[in-house]
Automatic annotation (TrEMBL):
Keywords: Hydrolase. It comes from Muriicola soli. HAMAP family: UPF0173. The keyword Transferase does not apply. Coiled coil: none annotated. Belongs to the UPF0173 family. It holds the Pfam family Lactamase_B_3. Residues 7-190 form the Metallo-beta-lactamase domain. GO terms for molecular function: hydrolase activity. The keyword Hydrolase applies. This is UPF0173 metal-dependent hydrolase EQY75_07080.
């Protein structure tokens, strides 16, 4: 399993026979560099954690060029189905076996609306089990006690957690989240894109290290294999 950071909360997950794209926000990201080009993204599936523009901005362009299936909560899935896209709706606590592996849609504490104010259902995260590995993509979320349920069912190889604070967990709560989910390997995301979520990289890594954990802060376009 190869995970490539595309900036903000966007990433791809490359599996044996499929590629997944999570929360595409490319054209509106001021930090995007030449390492990421919209025309090069051809995922089989697009996973959406919630409806905010900084997570769904480029869904339609990418899904159209790649003929991707969109996976998200019911409201978001129906929003894109009405626009003619192929979708798979899910809701909290539900699991489904896809051709690439198994997804479970889990709780997140945040808000969810489209740019025009349309209701985007309740936000969530994904547990992905595929290619012999299991990862947690938390989406935009606060620290929540529900995270303690995850290790009762899954042994995580990687937790992908927001660390930018203000709109989501910050570094300290992400460390607590990693304890809740019992995963010491964390990939941080949802940081630095805007002034509200800028972080001190060294301080963040040192805090995780002090807690006996590893924080991966990838450059845009950089990949991590697990």
């Amino acid at each position: 399993m190869e995970i490539t950071f595309l900036g903000h909360a966007s990433l791809t997950v490359k599996l044996d026979d499929h590629t997944l794209l999570v929360d595409p926000f490319i054209t509106g990201n001021p930090m995007i560099n030449d390492a990421v080009k919209l025309k090069d993204l051809n995922p089989d599936f697009i996973l959406l954690t919630h409806a905010h523009q900084d997570h769904v901005l480029d869904v339609e362009a990418i899904a159209k060029q790649a003929n991707s299936k969109i996976v998200s909560n019911y409201e978001i899935a129906m929003h894109f189905q009405e626009k003619g896209f192929e979708v798979h709706p899910m809701n909290h606590g539900g699991s489904w076996s896809f051709p690439f592996g198994k997804l479970k849609y889990v709780n997140a504490v945040h808000t969810s609306s489209f740019a025009d104010g349309t209701y985007g259902g309740q936000p969530g995260g994904f547990i992905l089990s595929a290619s012999g590995k299991t990862i947690y993509v938390a989406g935009d979320t606060a620290l929540t006690m529900d995270m303690k349920l995850i290790p009762e069912e899954f042994n995580l190889d990687l937790a992908i957690l927001p660390i930018g604070d203000n709109f989501t967990m910050g570094v300290d709560d992400a460390i607590r989240a990693s304890e809740f989910v019992k995963c010491d390997s964390v990939m941080g995301y949802h940081y630095d894109t805007f002034g509200y979520i800028e972080i001190d990289h060294k301080q963040a890594k040192d805090s995780f290290k002090k807690a006996g954990k590893k924080l991966h802060l990838l450059a845009i376009g950089e990949s991590l294999s697990i």
